[in-house]
Write a structure and sequence with these properties.
The protein has helices at residues 9-16, 25-34, 53-62, 75-84, 111-123, 136-144, 155-160, 165-181, 197-203, 214-223, 225-235; strands at residues 3-7, 39-42, 66-71, 88-91, 127-132, 149-153, 185-189, 209-212. By secondary structure, the chain is of the alpha/beta class. The model has no long low-confidence stretch (mean pLDDT 96).
Length: 239
């Protein structure tokens, strides 16, 4: 079964809106773990507009599930990951002013940079994933950096799914097969939701993990966090 990692950035955004500690990021993370999620994802950005560095340090010793830190590998980000040593780091080519992640790496153009990062993180015992578009050639290039996994950027799938599900998922199936061929684990994330996740999960082979934040937290406003996690987990059951 594919693992569900819940991105808790939106919890931190809500907390930061009042400048206090409600909701408490650590308490919510532990509740998400208790409700059956397989992992917690955070995406700290330089302006700390949601998850802060001190959140990352507090969460690491508390969690029993996998901890995934994703973000643009600036020197500050690299230093944070090497100090915290999460289960997984996901390298995302975000610009500092990006509202949200909007593209995968051009691995060929950044090959030496990514390869050096992968080596550093793997030496520290951190599983390393590279955020990429659903392109078999990019997946192949990512494998040559020494990375453990790729995470497929799924917004194009989510955008096309309402009108043509088969066409939407087709490039992701090919990218998944390429990941398998080149010895990479496979993650996916961005704009996956209760509306499109089950179809994606049924059709994508070898899928290790999905990382979902915005849609899941929005659904929790109506369904409650425990029921929402149950429903997302149900979408990941094959067959």
């Amino acid at each position: 079964m594919t693992n569900l990692s819940v991105n808790i950035n939106k919890i931190a955004t809500l907390r930061n809106a009042r400048g206090e500690n409600n909701p408490c990021v650590e308490t919510v993370a532990l509740d998400i773990e208790r409700f059956g999620a397989d992992g917690i994802t955070v995406h700290p950005r330089p302006d700390e507009r949601h998850i802060r560095r001190d959140d990352v340090f507090k969460l690491r010793p508390m969690l029993k599930v996998e901890f995934n830190i994703e973000g643009n590998p600036t020197p500050e980000f690299v230093d944070l990951v090497l100090k915290v040593r999460p289960t997984q780091v996901t390298l995302v080519p975000d610009s500092p002013d990006a509202l949200t992640s909007n593209a995968g790496w051009n691995v060929a153009d950044n090959f030496d940079f990514l390869s050096s990062l992968v080596e550093r993180f793997k030496d520290a015992g951190v599983r390393t994933s590279i955020f990429v578009d659903a392109d078999p050639e990019i997946v192949r290039a990512a494998s040559e950096t020494g990375a453990d996994r790729v995470e497929l950027y799924t917004k194009p799938y989510a955008d096309l799914y309402p009108t043509d599900p088969a066409a939407a998922v087709a490039p992701f199936v090919e990218a998944a097969r390429a990941a398998r061929k080149y010895g990479l684990g496979l993650n996916a994330g961005h704009d996956l939701s209760l509306e499109n996740l089950a179809f994606f999960s049924r059709n994508i082979p070898y899928l290790n993990e999905v990382s979902i934040g915005h849609a899941l937290i929005c659904d929790a406003l109506y369904l409650g966090l425990e029921e929402t996690i149950r429903r997302y987990k149900a979408c990941l059951v094959k067959g």
